[in-house]
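From the pipeline queue, job 12 of 40. The input is one protein chain; the requested action is below.

Action: predict structure.
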Amino acid sequence: MKKGFLAGFVLSLAVVLLPTFYYMDARSSSDRQGKTEVSAEPPDLFPGNPKRDPSPSATRATDPALAPIPPSPASPVPSPAPEADVLAPSSPKGEPAGEIVMLKKPMPVQAFPPPAPVRPEGGIRTRVYDPDRIYTLRTAVSHVTLVDLPEDAKEVYMGDSKLFLAEVFGKRVKVKPITYNPDARTNMIIYTLNKRLTFRIVMVPPGQEDDLVTFLSPREETVVNLNPLKTEIQKSLEAKVSEKMAKDRLVSLEEAGPTDPLPIEGRGNGIRLRLLGFTRTPADARIFALFEVLNTGRTTFRVERIRLRGYRRSVLWEGEKQWKENADWESTFDREILPGKTGRFLLSVTRIPTSGGRRGLEIELDGQTQAGTEIVRGDSGGERH
């Protein structure tokens, strides 16, 4: 009795526990392999029944605990590219693989020639002068930088003379740092005869500093003025020649006499003043009044001023002169006339004034003698002072 009870109890316990163990094994396999389904049917407990049905007439009820386990959600696997090969490891029992390995063929890479190495700018540079530009001058510790200018440097102004030293040697300026501070910087302004150059001086690492910076004048200035000194000398010579020629022409005019005679005379104390007439220069058609001063005294006479004025006699008042505004010319001189000598003087006028009828001319001479100031006047109407 007891043995039969124990056998039945063991059989019942096996029927209950075997599905549970099978379910646990299926869950663990699903976690390892990803997409694995567990059969909804329990193990075959009736080997004698080929249809695996304990009771053919009974309807089989599905236990919720033995329901199929849905596949675990997984991220969608992208479709492989045409050129990709898919390699899935095989399973010995025909089970689906848990991992998919994709091996992609590398794309052919086009071969490009290696780029040429960028060469840093050398320490010798050439710049074209621009008055509105600020140039950067790079120097380093224990390094000297030279600046060649198109003209001689006249003035050099350094922002901080405790950091950098500047020395002038004609057209060349030497710049050298006198500090070991790698962050030192300042400005420098150079004035030449006709130019101004502005710089920013900075400290750079060794190998990036400037050795020589040469400044050139703009092309048009260089072509027009190749040699400033030669140009200045040529201008000076031309001016001297022109001045000498003008003096020679005036001397010739004084000696030749008037081309338009108009004699007017005035006398003073040992001095005689005469207007000989008017003359013209053939080169520029300038008009001069030609005067002659004779010293009949015993002392030297110094001529200081000569004046020529035109007037009109009044109709109502006899002897009254109405001076013309546009007929008044004078010039100052500083010339001595020795006793018994004669000197001629040219007075530039704008036109030849007319004389006759009620129109007349008056001449006037101011000078110095040992006795004092001497004033001599003459009039085309015959009046003398």
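Job complete. The longest strand covers residues 321-337.
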